Amino acid sequence: MSFTVAIDGPAAAGKGTISTAVAQYFGFAHLDTGLLYRAVGAKVLKGADALEAANALQPEDLTDPNLRTHAVAQAASQVAVKADVRDALIAFQRSFARRDGGAVLDGRDIGTVICPDAEAKLFVTASPARRAERRHAELLSRGEEISYDQVLADVVARDRRDSERATAPMIAAQDAQLIDTSDMSIDQAVAAAIRAVADARR
Ligand code: CDP
């Protein structure tokens, strides 16, 4: 039987941690859909055409550790405004969502466009300052040299690009449960998400 959990929200709000924990708790598979756009963005940085890269995407492209860099995140949000690139990635995401045994997908448009019929929908957010703090610490721990101010400016620019684009803009689905993690610990945020999914399973 399939059961889809859609988790959307802006950069560094805690979607990744929450999605991994929810998937583990319920024994569901997890797809970080940001990696699809990051993999296409990384190929574009190396000179590829965005649509060709999206059409030729292979599972092993998603495991490259360089996908987590700051430069690739910006390239991802630039290819993500292209409607043809987004279309090319839909079928893979939908079939993942409907796999047997349950699936968690996290991204920007899962509850609105990719899986509007998802059984559980969450929109995870936090203030730009808190998100920039978290992302800055994460990038420093990966050895990237970057200032907090630069990370904050990029988070804000990416939020704007993601929410103002014409195709599949980042927006909470009307039936999504909102989780603001600004003042929550990781454990609190994960517990809130698990509660919401458990309620939807009843
Ligand atoms: O990890 P972080 O939240 O910083 O970003 P991500 O989820 O890896 O996504 C990188 C970029 O891909 C985002 O800024 C979006 O522009 C794009 N994206 C999207 O458009 N739709 C999705 N479902 C997932 C990501």
CATH homology superfamily name:
P-loop containing nucleotide triphosphate hydrolases
Low-confidence stretches: none
How many helical elements?
A: 10
What is the gyration radius calculated from CA atoms?
16 Å
User: What is the CATH third-level topology name?
Assistant: Rossmann fold
In the CATH classification, which architecture applies? Answer: 3-Layer(aba) Sandwich
| Domain unit count | 1
Name the overall outline. globular
Helix content: 40-55%
Name of the CATH first level: Alpha Beta
The number of E-state strands comes to: 5
Largest sheet: 5 strands, parallel
Give the mean pLDDT.
Answer: 96
Which structural class should the secondary elements be placed in? alpha/beta
N-to-C terminal Cα separation, in Å? 15 Å
H/E element sequence: EHEHHHHHEHEHHEH
Proportion of strand residues: 5-15%
The strand order across the widest sheet is 2-3-1-4-5
Q: Ligands in the structure? A: cytidine-5'-diphosphate
Properties at a glance:
202 residues; alpha/beta; Rossmann fold; five-stranded parallel beta sheet; 5 strands; binds cytidine-5'-diphosphate
How are the elements arranged and paired?
Elements: E1 4-8, H1 15-26, E2 29-32, H2 34-45, H3 50-55, H4 70-79, H5 83-88, H6 90-97, E3 103-107, H7 110-114, E4 120-125, H8 128-141, H9 148-164, E5 177-180, H10 186-201
Parallel strand pairs: 1-3, 1-4, 2-3, 4-5
Helix pairs in contact: 1-10, 2-4, 4-9, 8-9
Task: Provide a concise account of the structure shown.
The chain has 202 residues and is an alpha/beta fold.
Q: Would you kindly provide a written description of the structure presented here, covering whatever features stand out?
A:
There is one protein chain. With 202 residues, the protein is an alpha/beta fold. It has a single domain, classed as P-loop containing nucleotide triphosphate hydrolases (Rossmann fold), CATH 3.40.50. It is 52% helix and 12% strand. It has 10 helices and 5 strands. It has helices at residues 15-26, 34-45, 50-55, 70-79, 83-88, 90-97, 110-114, 128-141, 148-164, 186-201, and strands at 4-8, 29-32, 103-107, 120-125, 177-180. The chain has a 5-stranded parallel beta sheet, with helices on both faces. The mean pLDDT is 96. The structure holds cytidine-5'-diphosphate. Cytidine-5'-diphosphate (CDP) binds next to helix 2, helix 4 and helix 9.
